[in-house]
Task: inverse folding
């Protein structure tokens, strides 16, 4: 940026490039002062491989769910998909197009008892317009991760501005801001890979990144680059985690409304249809008897079907969606479950965030005792390094990585989780189409991840139709396994 342009920015009350990057680096990823490396106080150097953004555009797709998905006490029956396209170029002038896609997910990322579904979705759409403008107006060159680090504080400011302008009863939370911005971040990673004719996952080493991981996560990562925390080639296969929503039918007697679309309507039907071996169980968290009965019934039905199929090994994960009133509820649940179905208990691989997402406010909910029984992973609370560090202090032993929180953050949190020897899993936001390819591609590159959730095939299969022929190994599953070996094309792997 020229000195003349810097003077113009100051006249408009805007920071210079040096001031902007310094402020951005300090506030990005919610890194506490002790974890801010000295290099964050200086403008970032550049590489010849860096990109500059030329244009950003977006649109929406709307889909109705085949059947409602109930979690956290609410039922979701529709999806709004945010699709982002960007054009960028490298310093030699070569340009390319990038694409990112993600469900808005307002019920999960912006839960509210005071505002309607349409109100929170409308707030996310208003924020998306700001995110688009902020991203398009960024004219410095950089790697996608550094661009995201620089822009995230501006996205958060925009969320506060939208909250104030729309006079929202509750301000847009950081998690919601991350979800809104995630498709923009994905588009930048996608175009970066395409510009260099590489999978995006091959662009996180010293050949493409100015900074090592310590720049983002603190001095103990000195000398480490992100590619050291990723698989060189994607895993060949990942098990498919099937979600059983709180209102989903387990057996025929549970079916409330018959559908004639050729797809299963019960858990037993889905196990046979997809050859499932991994089942995620959504629980109430505020009704111990119901939760116990739900898991026991699911285990009984699953055992019957797997015996018929001659399958001897399968797994469960439990998701309370932060609804347990306290950790005592979880411990009592696990104790009783082990009494009622010892084998069912043994099949549990991990437990997703059982209590409230505001960890600072509920420090009494330590997971040390529960984590001795099974890994307890942080999910809704994981919005940056500071939350991961706090979660570890409170006894959490794993992380749920999600593409919907931003590709840049997912990669950095995957690195932190490995350094801290935490359990790792990749979760869904009922992602269809390109967003599912993105999520599965992430899971296939993170060491230790062996299964991935994919709910859209159950609840919004119409959104997957156009993708089934392009990626049959992802969208047409018959033996419980997704074929992921070919997710190594340019960018994030989706054909657009």
Result:
């Amino acid at each position: 940026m020229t000195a003349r342009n810097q003077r113009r920015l100051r006249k408009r009350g805007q920071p210079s490039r040096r001031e902007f990057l310094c402020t951005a680096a300090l506030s990005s990823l919610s890194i506490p002062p002790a974890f801010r490396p000295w290099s964050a106080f200086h403008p970032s150097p550049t590489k010849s491989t860096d990109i500059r953004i030329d244009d950003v555009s977006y649109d929406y797709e709307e889909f109705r769910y085949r059947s409602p998905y109930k979690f956290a006490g609410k039922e979701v029956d529709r999806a709004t998909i945010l699709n982002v396209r960007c054009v960028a170029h490298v310093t030699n002038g070569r340009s390319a197009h990038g694409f990112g896609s993600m469900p808005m997910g307002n019920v999960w990322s912006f839960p509210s008892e005071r505002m309607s579904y349409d109100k929170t979705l409308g707030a996310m759409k208003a924020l998306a317009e700001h995110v688009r403008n902020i991203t398009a107006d960024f004219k410095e060159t950089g790697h996608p991760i550094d661009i995201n680090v620089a822009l995230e504080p501006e996205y958060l400011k925009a969320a506060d501005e939208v909250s104030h302008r729309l006079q929202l009863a509750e301000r847009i939370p950081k998690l919601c801001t991350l979800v809104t911005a995630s498709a923009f971040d994905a588009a930048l990673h996608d175009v970066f890979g395409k510009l260099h004719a590489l999978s995006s996952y091959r662009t996180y080493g010293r050949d493409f990144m100015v900074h090592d991981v310590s720049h983002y996560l603190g001095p103990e990562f000195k000398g480490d680059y992100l590619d050291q925390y990723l698989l060189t080639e994607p895993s060949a296969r990942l098990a498919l985690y099937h979600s059983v929503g709180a209102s989903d039918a387990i057996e025929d007697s549970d079916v409330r409304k018959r559908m004639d679309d050729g797809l299963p309507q019960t858990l037993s039907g889905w196990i046979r249809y997809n050859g499932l071996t991994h089942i995620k169980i959504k629980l109430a968290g505020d009704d111990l008897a119901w939760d116990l009965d739900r898991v026991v019934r699911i285990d009984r039905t699953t055992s019957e079907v797997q015996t018929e199929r001659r399958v001897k090994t399968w797994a469960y994960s439990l998701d309370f969606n932060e609804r347990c009133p306290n950790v005592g509820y979880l411990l009592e649940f696990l104790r009783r479950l082990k009494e009622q179905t010892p084998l069912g208990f043994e099949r549990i691989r991990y437990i997703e965030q059982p209590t409230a997402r505001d960890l600072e406010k509920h420090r009494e909910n330590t997971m040390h005792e529960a984590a001795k029984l099974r890994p307890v992973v942080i999910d809704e609370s994981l919005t940056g390094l500071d939350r991961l560090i706090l979660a570890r202090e409170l006894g959490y032993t794993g992380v749920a990585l999600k593409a919907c929180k931003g590709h840049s953050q997912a990669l950095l949190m995957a690195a932190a989780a490995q350094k801290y020897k935490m359990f790792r899993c990749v979760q869904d936001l009922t992602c269809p189409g390109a967003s599912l390819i993105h999520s599965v591609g992430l899971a296939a590159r993170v060491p230790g991840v062996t299964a991935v959730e994919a709910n859209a095939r159950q609840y919004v299969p119409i959104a997957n139709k156009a993708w089934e022929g392009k990626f049959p190994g992802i969208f047409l599953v018959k033996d419980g396994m997704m074929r992921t070996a070919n997710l190594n094309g340019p960018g994030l792997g989706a054909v657009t």
About this structure: The CA atoms of residues 441 and 487 lie 6 Å apart.
